[in-house]
Every structure is written in C-alpha cells, then in structure tokens.
C-alpha cells in the first residue's frame, strides 16, 4: 500500500494526511492528485485550480470507503455571490461517471464551480447521500422544474441552492421538479436567489407543507411589489396557510389580493367570498 509517512513520499504528495482524511485544499492543483489511498474517508480538493474532474477510472473509482468529498471552488475564478459580468467558460468540467463508485458518500460539496447544469449520472449511485451543497453556481434551472437528478437521492436531508441565478435573470416563480417528491425530510437553503414572488408559488408552498421541509430564505429576496407573495422563514420553523378550501359547484379558485383570500365560484360565474384569513406577523407566515 502507498505510504505517505515516508519522507520521500511526503515531499512528492501534495496533500496533508491525517488518518483517513486527505486535505488537498489550496494547493494550486490542476488535477485531482494520484496517491489517495483506497481507505480514505474524507477528501478535500477545494480552492484549487482544477480545469476538470478527470475520467472517473483514474480519480475516484478506488475510493469506495469515501463518505465526504469537498470539491467546492475547485476551479479558480468561480462564480461570485453578486456577479456583474459573468465570465465565459468558467464551469468546472466533471466527467459523467466521476462519482459512480462512491456508494458510501454522504456529503458532496460542489459549491462555487459556476455549474450551469447537473448530470443525472453524477448522483445515480449516491443513495446514501444526505448533504448536497450546490451554492454559488449558475443553476437557475433548479427553480424552474427542470432538474431531474434528485430522484435517486431519497436520503437527502440538506440541499443548498443559495446564490444560483444568471446575470440579471430572476425566476418568475419557484417550481421544483417531480424528482423532489421522494425528499420527505429536507433542509433547503435558498439564500441570495431573487424571486418574482407571486401567488404562482403556492404549489411550492404546498409541497413544503406536504413534506417535512425547512427552508432558509431571506425576507428581502422578493424583487417585485411587496404586496405580492411575501415569504419569510424563521431559522427554526415555518408556518404555512392551511390548504383547506371551501368548494361550491365542484370547483375552487384562488384570488390574489394584498391579503390571502380563498374564494369559490358558483356555476353562474359570480364570485362569492368563502373564506379569508388574517395573520399575526409577517415573520411567521406568507401573505398573498
């Protein structure tokens, strides 16, 4: 087995090794180094100058004991929190099968790599993954229902999508794909993503209510009229309006007003206000 304890190898191997932890951060690496032993449980290759994650057979395929992989800010000149002018061709290239053998992985950090898309194959065999960190990328598609890569991550508990938007591009509403349907207990971080807040986000709120989801969201992330949907989420709790709706003539409509109002429409088309709620505090609830 490769021994990092020898003086000769210590000079050649760029990472600091403590037990089964390989710390390769801030080593100005242009590729993932060879020599990480198969019994490694933690590998940190963050804050380097990687251009791409090489083909999986030469990088991670032997690390079948790995539980934590940190590739955050692995490529120099990653996405800034508040991009003014986006840099071209700055996404970190990751081989589709890069993580296929990491079946014991529980934490994967891909933050700050200017990723514009997520490959389904990256997560196909990561059934034990509980934490996925994707902040500071360009994954605005995550809020438009276009991501399908989470369907295999049934154990995911923490998903960080903070600061994921294009230059002067704000999602009209929050929409999650069907691949989120298996995530029954989740902490979802959305800090730094400006939204056009409107009543169209109610489906998103209902998804939160149906699942054990805790959202971290800044009160000032709505970029439109403050009388539209206001979402404020405490760090410990989130209170959602009830889904219960009165129904007349078999169907129900929602009406957006400065206060959340549910109304029903009889067959004649005349609106009849059926129920209205007022809430004690903006810090606890949503208003529509």
From TrEMBL:
One function term, GO molecular function aspect: pattern recognition receptor activity
Superkingdom classification of source: Eukaryota
Swiss-Prot/TrEMBL keywords: Glycoprotein, Membrane, Receptor, Signal, Transmembrane, Transmembrane helix
Major place of residence: membrane
Membrane spanning stretches: none
Entry's Gene Ontology BP terms: canonical NF-kappaB signal transduction; defense response to virus; positive regulation of interleukin-6 production; toll-like receptor signaling pathway
Tagged with keyword Transmembrane helix: yes
Claim: Transmembrane is one of the keywords in the record: yes
Pfam families: LRR_8
Xref: InterPro entries: Leu-rich_rpt, LRR_dom_sf
Assigned GO CC terms: plasma membrane
Compartment(s) of residence: Membrane
The protein, known as: Toll-like receptor 8
Organism of derivation: Gadus morhua
């Amino acid at each position: 087995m490769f021994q990092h304890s020898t003086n000769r190898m210590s000079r050649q191997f760029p990472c600091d090794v403590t037990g089964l932890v390989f710390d390769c951060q801030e080593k100005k690496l242009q590729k993932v180094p060879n020599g990480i032993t198969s019994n490694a449980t933690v590998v940190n290759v963050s804050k380097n100058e990687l251009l791409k994650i090489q083909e999986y057979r030469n990088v991670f395929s032997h690390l079948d004991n790995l539980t934590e992989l940190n590739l955050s800010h692995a490529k120099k000149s990653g996405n800034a929190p508040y991009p003014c002018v986006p840099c071209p061709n700055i996404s970190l290239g990751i081989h589709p099968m890069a993580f296929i053998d990491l079946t014991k992985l529980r934490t994967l950090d891909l933050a700050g790599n200017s990723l514009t898309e997520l490959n389904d194959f990256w997560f196909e065999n990561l059934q034990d993954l509980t934490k996925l960190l994707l902040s500071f990328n360009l994954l605005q598609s995550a809020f438009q229902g276009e991501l399908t890569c989470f369907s295999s991550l049934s154990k995911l508990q923490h998903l960080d999508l903070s600061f994921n938007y294009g230059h002067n591009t704000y999602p009209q509403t929050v929409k999650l794909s069907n691949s989120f349907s298996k995530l029954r207990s989740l902490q979802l971080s959305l800090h730094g993503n400006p939204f056009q807040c409107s009543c169209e986000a109610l489906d998103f709120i209902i998804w939160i209510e149906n699942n054990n989801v805790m959202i971290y969201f800044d009160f000032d992330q709505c970029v439109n009229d403050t009388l539209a949907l206001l979402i404020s989420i405490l760090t410990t709790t989130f209170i959602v309006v009830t889904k219960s709706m009165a129904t007349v003539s078999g169907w129900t409509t929602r009406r957006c007003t400065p206060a959340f109002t549910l109304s029903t429409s009889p067959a004649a088309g005349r609106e009849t206000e059926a129920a209205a709620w007022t809430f004690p505090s903006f810090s606890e609830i949503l208003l529509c």
